[in-house]
């Protein structure tokens, strides 16, 4: 935007009250090699960010964070009303505040829906999940109560999304879910909202509300990674993901254990030795505790000598591992996009990812009719995929690495992102504000 529209000033609402603009822009330069004109970008610092943090709402987190985001939006609008508001954080409930206090057009780039029909289905079927604990899934009464809570939340989340003027999403998976949310209806709640005072809420939705979202794949800086030599590579299975519960690092250790169990030669020092390296960020005490639990699991599985944890490493260290590894591993179920998988492919690392979400539908797909990586569902399938990659002939291995890189560089470049961003029509809404 600075390159093509030098008359536009970008304002960023930020809760990083302890960071100066110069510090933030310097970090952007160091991390992404992007130089921003400080005259055209400014920060409005907000004091109420704690209201959208998980720790503030140990119970009823979804509704708590959503109400907190509305207060945060009120603080933002009281400090500066923009000509166009674009949400990139997933705070759809802020749209009501911005629309009715600021009277400005609203756009959004949705990375992951706050709630999805999958979440409703898991509660309804009483499936245990990281968003549906065993205490709830094992109780019919609690499951029914949570389902009713989710129904109400989904209803108002859909109303919030419909308040936007335009919506962008980061993958086919996210688009399918956001489109279904935009079409969501609940006969009981629709009936309730025919009567006052609830009928007023219906007026909050735009008459020309969006009926679908546009896919705009996130930009991946593939330039440096595409310079890495494709061969030779170390026999390293690499995971790059924050130590969050949904990333399912436990499944990675179990799959690696199965590989070593079926191929003990990979556990011996020498040419066949295989190593699992877990590179990731630890954001807080919860993440740090998960790392300790994962170390204990590796010890109990007797694979500890072959597993390395690299926690909170600088970007240069991440790049070093990407330049050396053979296999890139991602086990998250329903990963909305999977930029780590794109980075694997751009770096020439053959990806093995869960057969769901963005890695299944958008990223690890055939290039020129030939595979660019592998999908798996179970720990055994992951172990089998590892073995398949490790058994490739040098010619097959080099060809797959080349295809993976060619597809990633072609499909997920910054140029593709810019094209999709501009096709959203954001300029039109800015001009009309």
TrEMBL record:
It is found in: Endoplasmic reticulum membrane. It holds the Pfam family Glycos_transf_1. Its main location: endoplasmic reticulum. Residues 224-405 form the Glycosyl transferase family domain. One of its GO terms (cellular component) is endoplasmic reticulum membrane. InterPro entries: ALG11, ALG11_N, Glyco_trans_1. It is an enzyme of class 2 (transferase). Keywords: Endoplasmic reticulum, Glycosyltransferase, Membrane, Transferase, Transmembrane, Transmembrane helix. GDP-Man:Man(3)GlcNAc(2)-PP-Dol alpha-1,2-mannosyltransferase that operates in the biosynthetic pathway of dolichol-linked oligosaccharides, the glycan precursors employed in protein asparagine (N)-glycosylation. The assembly of dolichol-linked oligosaccharides begins on the cytosolic side of the endoplasmic reticulum membrane and finishes in its lumen. The sequential addition of sugars to dolichol pyrophosphate produces dolichol-linked oligosaccharides containing fourteen sugars, including two GlcNAcs, nine mannoses and three glucoses. Belongs to the glycosyltransferase group 1 family. Glycosyltransferase 4 subfamily. This is GDP-Man:Man(3)GlcNAc(2)-PP-Dol alpha-1,2-mannosyltransferase.
